[in-house]
Amino acid sequence: MISVIIIITLGILMIIAGIVALHLKNLLAAIITAGVISLLASVIYLILGSPDVAMTEASIGSGLTTIIFLYALNKVRKEKKDD
Length: 83
What we know:
Number of strands: 0
Largest sheet: none
Order of helices and strands: HHH
Mean pLDDT: 93
Number of helices: 3
Number of domains: 1
Strand content: under 5%
Oligomer: single chain
């Protein structure tokens, strides 16, 4: 019963974080918020008893994707400064 409450709470937090990420004007904050959504999903997978999927989601979904987005944002900002 407690795990159901935790999963529902994390799901609601994911929805709220998604809405916040859509409305943020700051791209850096939106990228970090998207990473948090993926991290919350990995916690849900772990609670549901799927540690392999949770590790994959945490490493690729939350970690690697966030780093790639931050790298792309940095490149775009550098290109914008050079023009």
